[in-house]
Design goal:
about 200 residues, alpha/beta, 6-stranded mixed β-sheet, 6 helices, 12 strands, about 25% strand, disordered N terminus
């Protein structure tokens, strides 16, 4: 699998010097749901709309820090689960992140990573959960795995690993919890910046 590498240093459009000369993140951001699949809804707010809005902000923040970023969708379009991770393979990415908002009445951020030890990014998942929850001012529910009959329960994590790519699902609070929902809507820029910073810092270590 090809990965993004550059030599020396470069100044991006925001005047920020990006660390290069070593592996850099080449990321597919997957805005959860889309098109006919609205995802979770509450008080007239649809998960598919918030995830797309948020993904675009994370993309801009990642690119300002020197990462290469692709998106599984850039508008309100339905994309199958297998097509989402296939894009990560086609683009020679080294990280797949699926952006979601939970439901069920609880509160807080949580991040799922693979049960496959070769592709388990537990440290990154833990830091994302910690830093995003702090940026939003909501609970940190931590980094988690979920096992199914074929390994990872979640398709995008399982098929990412099958393509040789670590995959994460980031749940940015609970849409049916008004505190979480309002936090994401009102502090989206802060959370997106922190998510991007955490990803790039992980790659620089």
């Amino acid at each position: 699998m090809l990965i993004g590498r550059e030599q020396g240093s470069a100044v991006n459009g925001r005047g920020i010097v990006a660390r290069v000369g070593k592996e850099r993140p080449v990321v597919v951001l997957d805005a959860g749901h889309g098109g006919s699949d609205s995802g979770a809804t509450s008080s007239g707010v649809k998960e598919k709309d918030l995830t797309l809005q948020y993904a675009k902000k994370v993309k801009n923040e990642l690119e300002s820090r020197g990462a290469k970023v692709y998106m599984t969708r850039s508008d309100d379009t339905y994309v199958s689960l297998t097509d989402r991770t296939q894009k990560a393979k086609d683009k020679d990415c080294n990280l797949f992140i699926s952006l979601h908002i939970n439901s069920g009445g609880a509160s807080g951020t949580e991040v799922y990573y693979s049960v496959n030890s070769k592709y388990a990014k537990k440290k990154l998942a833990s830091k994302l959960a910690e830093n995003i929850s702090e940026a939003l001012g909501i609970n940190n529910r931590g980094a988690k795995t979920r096992t199914g009959s074929n390994g990872d329960y979640y398709s995008v994590i399982r098929t990412s690993a099958a393509h040789g790519i670590p995959g994460l699902i980031v749940e940015h609070g609970f849409i049916d919890n008004s505190t979480d929902r309002n936090a994401l809507q009102n502090r989206m820029d802060e959370a997106a910046s922190e998510e991007a910073r955490t990803i790039v810092k992980y790659w620089e270590q």
